[in-house]
Amino acid sequence: MKDAKLKIETKKRKTFIYVFSNIFRKGGVYFVFLILVVFIGILSPKSLGPSHIMDMLKNSSVLGIVSIAQTLLILTRGIDLSVGANIIFVMLLVDGISMGNPNKTVLVIILALVVGILIGLLNGILVVKLKIEPLVGSLGVMSLITGISYIYTMGFGKGTAPPFINTLGSGQLFGFLPVSVVIWAVISIVFIIILKKTIFGRHIYAVGSNPKSAAVVGINVSRVSLIVYVISGLLVSLAGIIWAGYLSSPTFSGGQYFPLDSIAAVILGGTLFAGGVGGVGGSIIGTLIIGFLASLLNMIGLSHPWKLISSGLIILLIVFSYSGRSRTN
Amino acid sequence: MKNEEILKINNVSKNFVGVQALNDVSLTLLKGEVHALVGENGAGKSTLIKIICGVYSNDSGRIYYKNNLLPKGNPIKSQELGIFMIPQEFGLIPRLSVMQNIFLGREKNKAGIIDLKYLKNFCKEILNDIGIKLDIDMPVSRLAIDQQQFVAIARVLTAKAEIIILDEPTSTLAESEVETLFRIIKKLKQKGITIIYISHRLEEIFKISDRVTILKDGVLVKTCKTSEITKEELINKMIGRTLSKTFPEKRKESVKDAIIHLENVTVEENISNINLDIMKGEVLGIGGLVGMGQTAILKAIFGSTIISSGYIEFQGKRIYKNSSSKSIKNGINYISSDRRGEMLFLNRSVKENISISALHDFQNAGFLNSKNENYIVDSKINEFNIAVLNREQEVQFLSGGNQQKAILARWLIHEPKVLLLDEPTQGIDVGTKEDIYRSLRNLADKGLSIVVVFSDMIELLGMCDRIAVIYEGRLIKIFNAVEATEEKIMAAAGDHYRE
């Protein structure tokens, strides 16, 4: 009698979450993406046409590039909440300094990239040299950059992007391929290769997996982390340039979603928050899930607050199933 | 009454990722007996008691408590049934009073209001019962260590303990206090309570226990009446290894050339004025009581700790500003005792864990040549006989022994000159231990210098050509293998273990 009762008690309860995470573990994030695409197809078969797909990709490309930066950071146990503020700041600089003048294109691009490197360096020094928690450090930088942005513009964005930058943000190659998507794809390929095929990539994984072990095998842990911060600052400023070309006029709104969306994309893509496991490929799918989910919720016709609530819940559900995965492991 | 069985352990086994911590252990405990549990570190004592307490659940076998099956891995149930363990640190809350600690979580109350009068009487009664005088309103933090132990015992008594497990109860007690404890244990016995008594101090075991069980490497070697075994026999059964068998043959002639020289090396709060030569091709053991500065010596040589005075010479040249990356370039490699915390990349593959120190070998203009890398990694996996599914398996799923082999393989892609190892066989099963001894000896025979910290005397004597004994950060004496005996090393280490 006691024996039987015990068995029932110890038997794993197969809750909905358990089943869900089981399916998810096998098919991974690709499975969720597929479900999304199927839903979109059922609701509106037209939206799976090439031009709509390209549109959705274009709308995701800035987030996609930011997510690559975030991937590198999270892989090395870092994180950056200042990405949104930095994108806005770069956009304001590009629009405000060039005032749409094509002759200043090179100047503003170089300026934007230098600003990105400096912000990355600042975040990196806070974390690596001053040993501030990355979450807190980048939160401070976010506030700092936002404040500077307001002082610089006195509250109102001015100017507009030069034509070349407009092309980067909203132009098309061969009449169908958005330029920003091409840039996103090229950057993705470059970083997939760096992570998989270079010594630096191995060092990134080693530092994220276990910084103490990395130091014992002679890896300069601080240097690797600092370089990653600088690279991600550079990528974010590039995203800011494209953002300037994507919007017709500068605005402060829209930037606030980048930090959390980019982190969500990375985690959805299977990169471990604890560092050391994951990669750019997953983050691309994660970005697409967030982008396609927004389109789907739009099609259903939800109001903005309900869109936020549903996408939040869906993302939480997926991420929760990951935590289930690590538990069962 | 006398021979009534209270706990019956039948064929219990427990495996921790590849290490067989307990292997088919069967044991019966009698009501009202003091049963001593002895064995070396890692023999399986703590695993066994944790299974009895329900902290771990056994892989196979059954435990019967008063002829009923004891639920596996259910610590709350075990306590309800009256099985308690008193840990070395007692688990009391310092700021609460003696009485509050005794009844913590089980206060008798009426509608939420504690019945103080009843508790006070009950508390006094229990303490009287075991012959202890204590101010029951005194905060526990103001009690002496032995008195705190009495509180812990009183606590389990009020919870109707029938089996009490005492884990090294005398390790923090003075001799007179031990006497009081023994008096209490005898009283508990009279009340029919069964005591499981774990101690390294063998004399105590002969004084207090009725029966003794000897564990070795997870196997129950012998259970017998304590009066029927001699101390020598007990020690023999605990160690149970003959030195010549498990260890490879040592170097025959002594070596003369030093590769590393430590001159008056001091690391603040760790080691002071160490003078030491490390010879080419020797296995130099560093021994002593645990935590006497052994690790600091390795870290000082490796350059991962700051030397406050003195210096280190490598191949006759003084090293300025020692650092771990410089040491690695010089061919001096370090294997920490904290395998998981300081050596491995747990969630990365075996391949990446092995190749990480030699990536420059496999590169072409910064890009890794995976064919070369895979070839080298596979050959190392074969050479060190590492049990893996394939090279892409995450290293966290390997057993401790195979993890250690992977770390050795990592450092041996390039032929190093010096290998510094801290407790390289800790938490590793016996078979793999022998593999590692053999690998180390082979390397030494090829001219590699090995400095190794062992806390296990048998390993120290069996493996090392010379043994440096450390006490409180100072180098006491260096023994040659021929002259070294357990007694001499013990004397130098200032140890009282095994008297």
Write the layout of secondary structure elements.
The complex is a heterodimer of chains A (329) and B (499).
Chain A: H1 2-10, H2 16-43, H3 50-75, H4 83-98, H5 105-129, H6 134-153, H7 163-170, E1 172-173, E2 177-178, H8 179-197, H9 199-209, H10 211-216, H11 221-246, H12 258-268, H13 280-300, H14 304-328
Antiparallel strand pairs in A: 1-2
Helix pairs in contact in A: 2-13, 2-14, 3-8, 3-11, 3-12, 3-13, 4-5, 4-6, 4-11, 5-6, 5-11, 7-11, 8-9, 9-11, 12-13, 13-14
Chain B: E1 5-16, E2 19-30, E3 34-38, H1 45-53, E4 60-65, E5 68-69, H2 75-80, E6 83-86, H3 98-103, E7 109-110, E8 113-114, H4 116-129, H5 145-158, E9 163-167, H6 175-190, E10 194-198, H7 202-208, E11 211-216, E12 219-225, H8 231-239, H9 243-246, E13 258-267, E14 271-279, E15 283-287, H10 294-302, E16 309-314, E17 317-319, H11 324-330, E18 332-335, H12 339-343, H13 350-355, E19 363-364, E20 367-368, H14 370-383, H15 400-411, E21 418-422, H16 430-445, E22 449-453, H17 457-463, E23 466-471, E24 474-480, H18 486-493
Parallel strand pairs in B: 3-10, 3-11, 6-9, 9-10, 15-22, 15-23, 18-21, 21-22
Antiparallel strand pairs in B: 1-2, 1-4, 4-5, 7-8, 11-12, 13-14, 13-16, 16-17, 19-20, 23-24
Keywords, separated by commas or semicolons:
heterodimer, A: 329 residues, mainly alpha, two-stranded antiparallel ribbon, 2 strands, 1% strand, B: 499 residues, alpha/beta, six-stranded mixed beta sheet, 18 helices, 24 strands
Q: How many beta-strand elements of chain A?
A: 2
How many helices of chain A? The count is 14
Helicity range of chain B: 25-40%
* Low-confidence sequence ranges of chain B: 495-499
Q: What is the terminal separation of chain A in angstroms?
A: 32 Å
Main beta sheet strand tally, sense and closure of chain A? 2 strands, antiparallel
Q: Cα-atom Rg of chain A, whole angstroms? A: 21 Å
The helix-strand sequence of chain A is: HHHHHHHEEHHHHHHH
Percentage of residues in strands of chain B: 25-35%
CATH top level of chain A? Mainly Alpha
Overall pLDDT score of chain B: 86
Q: So what's the overall shape of chain A?
A: globular
Please state the overall shape of chain B, judged from the principal axes of the Cα atoms.
Answer: elongated
